[in-house]
UniProtKB/TrEMBL annotation:
Belongs to the glucosamine/galactosamine-6-phosphate isomerase family. 6-phosphogluconolactonase subfamily. It comes from Oricola thermophila. One of its GO terms (biological process) is pentose-phosphate shunt. It catalyses: 6-phospho-D-glucono-1,5-lactone + H2O = 6-phospho-D-gluconate + H(+). Hydrolysis of 6-phosphogluconolactone to 6-phosphogluconate. Its EC number is 3.1.1.31. InterPro entries: 6-phosphogluconolactonase_DevB (IPR005900), 6PGL (IPR039104), Glc/Gal-6P_isomerase (IPR006148), NagB/RpiA_transferase-like (IPR037171). This is 6-phosphogluconolactonase. Pathway: Carbohydrate degradation; pentose phosphate pathway; D-ribulose 5-phosphate from D-glucose 6-phosphate (oxidative stage): step 2/3. One of its GO terms (molecular function) is 6-phosphogluconolactonase activity.
Amino acid sequence: MTETGSGVRRHDYSDREALAIALAAGIAAQLAGAIAERGEAALAVSGGSTPKTLFKVLSETEIAWDRVTVILVDERICPPDSERANQRLVRERLLTGHAAKAHFTAFETGLATPDENARRSAELFATVAWPLDVAVLGMGTDGHTASFFPGGDMLDRALDPDSGERVVPMRADGAGEPRLTLTLPVLLDARFLALHIEGEEKRAVFETALGGNDVRAMPVRAVLQQEKTPIHVFWAP
């Protein structure tokens, strides 16, 4: 592990399987510790193709999954069974094996407007054991994380460190469908915060994000350049 002055702790691995095994072990240790201390744990995960191997390894890990609540970091506003839905990925790839016993609370995506879906999602998430014990973020090649997209219509609202909101809607040219996302302060409250990236292209994006300070151009900087919470960056080629 290497650490920068900004609190970014870098964990580089030779291959993606080794990364998945190491990150899954870290997540499981955090969740097991929370269960031992408080009787329950909360895990927020991201969608996309990157976490598929991680989800497989994590689902095979033996912890008290019946004491764990799983939620998503963000979601597309689309039908739950759509191939674009992050919740479908979680149900098919993570909530299997030992992890089938976990409680999953999905974003609401079936109401008329993004704002209505955001409000209802926040109500559903009220039962989660906050703050999160673990939050695992991804990153796009445009420098977005969660649904904090460059040019997002609610980006300032989502990144507001003093916001009392847990969920906001997001529309952006690069987002495709309208989205729902947890807000920055909710993510920074996590007891263990990880950024999971793979491949040389995303490593270059990550290095660029570290080297600049325009958060609106690359919103992942809001996570990488804050001083409240250490961010563990897991990378493999």
